[in-house]
Amino acid sequence: MHYKCTAIELQLSSAENSEENRSLKERFGQITIRGVDRSLYGRLSRLARRMGVNVGTLINQSMELFLSVIPQDGGPRLPRGPLNLSAEFMRGFLEGLGHVIEDIEELSMSKKDLLEADRELVFVRIGLLEFEDDVDRETFRSRVRAIYHCKEVVIPETLPKVLVLSVSRGIGRIVVRGRDSK
């Protein structure tokens, strides 16, 4: 099967030649990517317009999320499996997964913590993720979008395990505080 491809150019407008602008140009300068599917790019572009952001922002977030679910550099050669991410996973990301909180050894979240977020939260690679006793079903449902690759998730007895499992992927174990920790 052969796909028609196009190139994407990400550009930073050149305002004044300040040191800060030079630094931004180095980080967010023009990049050409060959082999981009025109149809996917069109869909991403329309989504960016609806969200009120530029395409580069969505591409940066897509790359950041993709890299967050793959083991870090320095390991053995990776299989092509990560390239076959499900359409549902990518669609969920493109619709705006929310704020990504990642790479923390231990994190405890209260109801207040969750409600202070202005968007849904995505937890990635947290060693021990603990939801405090005041986190109820509705707060969890409205504020926790996804939990990926966490070693241990501790939840209160009042929070249904199935609800937590429904947003979790790659979890080492779930402990129900009060039931499993006696």
Please describe what this structure looks like.
- This protein has two domains: 1-71, no CATH class; 97-182.
- Strands 3, 4, 5, 6, 7 and 8 form a six-stranded parallel beta sheet that branches. Strands 1-2 form a two-stranded antiparallel sheet.
- The chain has helices at residues 19-28, 38-51, 55-68, 87-94, 111-116, 137-143, 161-166, and strands at residues 5-10, 31-37, 99-109, 121-131, 144-148, 152-156, 168-169, 173-177.
- The chain contains seven helices and eight strands, in the order E-H-E-H-H-H-E-H-E-H-E-E-H-E-E.
- Residues 1-16 have low confidence and may be disordered.
- It is 36% helix and 29% strand.
- The N and C termini lie far apart (57 Å).
- Helix 2 crosses helix 3.
- The radius of gyration is 20 Å and the shape is elongated.
- By secondary structure, the protein is α/β, with parallel strands linked by helices.
What is the overall number of helices? 7
Instruction: Please tell me what the overall shape is.
Output: elongated
Mean pLDDT: 78
Structural domain tally:
2
- What is the N-to-C order of secondary-structure elements (H for helix, E for strand)? EHEHHHEHEHEEHEE
Share of helix, binned: 25-40%
Can you summarize the main beta sheet? Answer: 6 strands, parallel
Helix/strand/pairing category:
alpha/beta
Weakly predicted, low-confidence segments: 1-16
Radius of gyration: 20 Å
Distance between the termini: 57 Å
Sheet-strand content, in percent, reads 25-35%
Strand segment count:
8
